[in-house]
Every structure is written in C-alpha cells, then in structure tokens.
Specification:
A hairpin with a 5-residue loop joins strand 2 and strand 3. The protein is of the alpha+beta class and 237 residues long. The strands form two sheets. A four-stranded antiparallel β-sheet has the order 3-2-5-6, with no helix packed on it. The chain has three domains: 93 residues, Immunoglobulins (Immunoglobulin-like), CATH 2.60.40.10; 73 residues, no CATH class; 63 residues, no CATH class.
Length: 237
C-alpha cells in the first residue's frame, strides 16, 4: 500500500514538474495596440484566462498542448506550447475578421437611446465633423491648416468627439444595471469594480450579449480574488 502511494505521489510530482507557465502578449496586427479581453484556452486542460489591459496573459499547460486565442471581431488562432520558451513573454498579433453584412435599414422605431443621441450629436456638429485635413499634395492648404489656430481647434474637436462617441457607445453596453444583475454589487463597490475593469471599445463593439456577460463574470471573479488577497494582507494572514 505504501509503495503504491509512493508511486502515485511520484507520478503526480512528475506531472506537476512538466507543467509550463506560458506567457504572452496579444496586440492588434494593424494598430499594434494591446487587445484586452481576448480569451486564451488550453484545449487539453480546458483552462481559460483573459488578457489584461496590456494584452498580457499567463496560462498553464504542458509541452504540445494546443492553445486557442479568441476575441470578438478578430480571427481565431491556435498555437502550440513549446518547451524552453516558458521564461519568455511571447508576442502574438491578431487580425480583424472581415465580414460582409447584409444591408440593414434602421428606422426611428428601432433605434436605441445611444443611436438616437449619437445621430442628434452628429447632426448638430455635421459641418465641423465634415471638415477634412488637406493632403501633403496641396502644400499651401496643408501649411495653412497647421498655422491656423481655428483649423487646429476643429481637428482637435473632431478627435475629442470621436473619443467621446466611443465611450458613450461602450457605456451603452457596459451598464451599471447589467453589471449589478450579474455581480450583485451596488453603489460605491459597483463603481469601483467598473472603474477597475473598464471595457475596451473594440470589445464592446464586437461582442455579443453572451460574450459581454462572460467578460463581466470573468473579471468579477478576478476582482473577488484580488479583494480577498488584499483583505488577507491587511489582516496579516
């Protein structure tokens, strides 16, 4: 009996010793920006992790395990864990998937509040937003725009407007009501969680309703783990 136990323990130790912590960073192939919220799955063990705001992830596996990358709006990829690279943070890039959509006519009846508000904002600022920068092929206009304070202010406004529109859209999907229904958080705790885990615009734009919920639940579990660790640290455990 003791010999069998010894063999079992030895086998368990050898399996644990073979485990590799595979580290990587995922970026957008075109913009080179880190992709937050991409899910990485070890198909052999079914372990799943998500990339953080820097596009980084750590996942355990064994040599030869297949690891799949998935993020809404991007082409899925599969990679194989190779021994000897576990001490290096590897770089990966994902390409946006091109999908042709059928023509859709949106009527006033079916618009969401965000779509209505966005349409009104764009209508009010249509003249300013329609202003385009001159190309370097027109050197006189190109130079004049860079010397004109008014033109610089217009282009700065356009950039700010675009950023605010992205945030408004993200807020329309990543709502306190949705988060509260999935986490039971409220008031300051709810605000703290949402501020600690901001949803990227690209993810909010491409994710389905189910993927939004999965993203929130995954990050909520991470939030609970970090909160518990901090609590133990304060108590001196």
């Amino acid at each position: 009996m003791s010999r069998l136990l010894y063999v079992f323990i030895s086998l368990l130790c050898s399996l644990n010793a073979a485990a590799i912590v595979w580290r990587g960073t995922i970026i957008d192939a075109d913009s080179k920006r880190p992709i937050q919220g991409a899910s990485i799955t070890n198909t052999a063990s079914s372990a799943i992790v998500m990339t953080n705001e820097l596009g980084q992830f750590d996942i355990k596996g064994n040599e030869g395990d297949k690891v799949s990358f998935y993020c809404p709006g991007y082409r899925s990829e599969t990679h194989i864990i190779i021994k000897g690279l576990e001490g290096i943070r590897l770089n990966f890039s994902m390409k946006l998937s091109s999908r042709e959509l059928n023509e859709v006519i949106i009527t006033q009846r079916y618009k969401t509040k965000y779509q209505k508000d966005s349409a009104e904002r764009r209508s009010e600022q249509s003249r300013v937003l329609a202003r385009q920068k001159s190309s370097i092929g027109s050197p006189v206009s190109f130079l004049a725009e860079r010397l004109s304070r008014k033109q610089r202010a217009i282009f700065k406004f356009q950039k700010t407007f675009g950023t605010l529109e992205e945030q408004q859209f993200t807020d329309s999907r990543y709502t306190p009501e949705l988060v509260a229904s999935l986490t039971n958080l409220s008031a300051d705790t709810l605000a703290h969680f949402m501020n600690s885990y901001p949803m990227p615009y690209d993810y909010a734009r491409a994710a389905t309703a189910l993927e939004l919920k999965m993203w929130i639940k995954y990050n909520f579990n991470d939030y609970l783990k970090k909160s518990d660790s901090l609590r133990q640290l304060k108590l001196g455990y």
